[in-house]
C-alpha cells in the first residue's frame, strides 16, 4: 500500500537531484526514468529503490544533491547493523527536522512548561542534537545529560523536577528498575517518557510505565530520514503518525517488492520530496510495519504506520521457520511474572540441527513450561526457555542486542 503521492513534488525533487547529484543522476539514468515521467501517483513505482548499502558505500558529499558549501552539518548512524551511515544536512534540512521534533513533542502532550531530560547520544549520532533543537523550539527546558551516568541522571531528575524523559527503551528500563530498587518514584516528577531508536514492545512499555508512573510514546526515525522525529504515537497509542508533509511512505513485500494491502505487514519504503542534502528515493528502511487504512480517531491529518515489528534483515530462519524478536515480546506482554528483557540464542549441533533458546527473567522458574507452549503457538517452532534471575540479563544505555546467532552459516 502507498500513502497519497504528490507527483508535482516528486518531479521537483527529481529535477533537484538530477542537477545536484551526479550519483543520483546516474542512478535514475540507469533506471530509464526522467523527472517528466512522474505525472500520476502510480508513477512512483517507476523509480528505483535505494538501499542502505548504497548510502554507506557512496561518499556523503558525492551522494549529496547540494554543493558542499550548503552543508551545515553531518550526522551518522550508530552502526548497529554494520558500517556507519553518514548523512548531510542543509540549514533548511535542520529547520525542517526541528519542526518535526517539536510536532512529536506536541503529540506526546509536552508543553513549554515541561523539563525534558535528553538521555540519548549527542555528537555524530542523529539523536540528541536534533531532539534538543525541537525541545527548544517548543519552549520547554532541555536537560542534555546524554546516555549513561545513571547516578547523574537520577540526581538531575530530582533536582530539576524533570517531567519528561527522552531515552532509548533499553535505557528507560534500566533507569526505571533503578528507581524501583531505591524506592525513588515518589521523589520524581516524571509524567512522560519518549522512547525510540530501537524496536520495543508492549511488555517493555508496561515495565517502564509501571515503574516510573509515566505514559510512554513511541517515536520513529532513522538517520537517513533526518533522525528521530519522523513520526510519533498520539494519545491513543494505536500506531505511529508519520509526517507525510515531509515523506511519502509505502509498504511492500520485501521478497516480491510489490505493494501490500493496508493492514498487511511489510517493509516500509520512504521517499523524501523536500530533503535537500541527502534526498532519498524509495528508500528501503528494512523496518517491518503496516499502513492503517482509516484515519486515526484522534483527528490527526497524518496517516499511521504500525509500531515497528522488527527488521526484514533481523528475521532469522530456524528449521525452515521465520523468527522475529517481536514475537517473543508479544508473548511476554501477555504472561504475568515475566520481565520484558530477553535474549534469543540460535545454535547448531554437530549433526547440523538448529535449535533456538530464549532466556527470560522471572522469579518463578516454573513459568518456563507455559512460556514454551505460548512461544510454540506463536512462532510455530519448538523453542527452549531458560529462566534467569530478574536483573541478570544485561541492560544497555543505548541499544540492546537481543538475538545471538551462533551458527556458522
Automatic annotation (TrEMBL):
InterPro entries: AMP-bd_C_sf, AMP-dep_Lig_C, AMP-dep_synth/lig_dom, ANL_N_sf, PA_CoA_ligase. Keywords: Ligase. Residues 141-273 form the AMP-dependent synthetase/ligase domain. GO terms for molecular function: ligase activity. Residues 320-407 form the AMP-dependent ligase C-terminal domain. The keyword Isomerase does not apply. Signal peptide: none annotated. This is Phenylacetate--CoA ligase.
Amino acid at each position: 500500500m502507498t500513502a497519497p503521492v504528490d507527483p508535482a513534488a516528486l518531479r521537483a525533487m527529481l529535477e533537484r537531484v538530477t542537477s545536484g547529484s551526479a550519483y543520483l543522476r546516474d542512478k535514475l539514468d540507469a533506471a530509464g526514468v526522467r523527472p517528466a515521467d512522474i505525472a500520476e501517483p502510480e508513477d512512483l513505482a517507476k523509480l528505483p529503490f535505494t538501499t542502505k548499502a548504497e548510502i554507506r558505500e557512496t561518499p556523503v558529499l558525492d551522494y549529496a544533491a547540494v554543493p558542499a558549501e550548503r552543508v551545515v552539518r553531518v550526522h551518522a548512524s550508530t552502526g548497529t547493523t554494520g558500517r556507519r551511515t553518514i548523512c548531510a544536512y542543509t540549514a533548511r534540512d535542520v529547520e525542517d527536522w526541528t519542526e518535526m521534533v517539536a510536532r512529536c513533542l506536541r503529540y506526546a502532550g509536552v508543553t513549554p512548561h515541561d523539563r525534558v531530560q535528553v538521555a540519548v547520544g549527542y555528537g555524530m549520532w542523529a539523536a540528541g542534537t536534533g531532539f534538543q533543537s525541537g525541545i527548544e523550539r517548543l519552549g520547554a527546558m532541555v536537560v542534555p545529560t546524554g546516555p549513561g551516568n545513571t547516578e547523574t541522571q537520577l540526581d538531575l531528575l530530582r533536582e530539576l523536577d524533570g517531567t519528561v524523559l527522552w531515552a532509548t527503551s533499553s535505557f528507560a528500563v534500566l533507569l526505571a528498575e533503578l528507581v524501583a530498587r531505591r524506592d525513588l518514584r515518589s521523589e520524581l516528577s516524571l509524567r512522560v517518557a519518549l522512547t525510540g531508536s530501537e524496536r520495543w514492545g508492549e511488555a517493555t512499555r508496561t515495565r517502564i510505565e509501571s515503574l516510573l508512573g509515566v505514559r510512554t510514546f513511541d517515536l520513529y526515525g532513522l538517520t537517513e530520514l533526518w533522525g528521530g522525529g519522523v513520526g510519533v504515537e498520539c494519545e491513543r497509542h494505536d500506531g505511529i503518525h508519520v509526517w507525510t508533509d515531509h515523506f511519502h511512505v509505502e509498504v511492500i513485500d520485501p521478497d516480491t517488492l510489490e505493494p501490500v494491502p493496508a493492514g498487511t505487514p511489510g517493509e516500509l519504503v520512504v521517499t523524501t520530496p523536500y530533503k535537500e542534502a541527502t534526498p532519498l528515493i524509495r528508500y528501503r528502511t528494512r523496518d517491518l510495519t503496516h499502513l492503517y487504512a482509516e484515519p486515526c480517531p484522534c483527528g490527526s491529518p497524518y496517516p499511521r504506520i504500525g509500531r515497528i515489528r522488527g527488521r526484514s534483515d533481523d528475521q532469522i530462519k530456524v528449521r525452515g521457520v521465520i523468527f522475529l524478536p517481536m514475537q517473543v515480546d508479544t508473548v511476554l506482554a501477555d504472561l504475568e511474572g515475566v520481565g520484558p528483557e530477553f535474549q534469543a540464542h540460535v545454535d547448531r549441533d554437530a549433526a547440523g540441527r538448529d535449535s533456538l533458546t530464549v532466556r527470560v527473567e522471572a522469579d518463578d522458574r516454573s513459568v518456563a513450561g507455559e512460556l514454551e507452549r505460548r512461544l510454540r503457538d506463536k512462532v510455530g517452532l519448538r523453542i527452549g526457555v531458560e529462566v534467569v534471575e530478574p536483573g541478570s540479563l544485561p541492560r544497555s544505555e543505548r541499544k540492546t542486542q537481543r538475538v545471538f546467532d551462533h551458527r556458522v552459516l
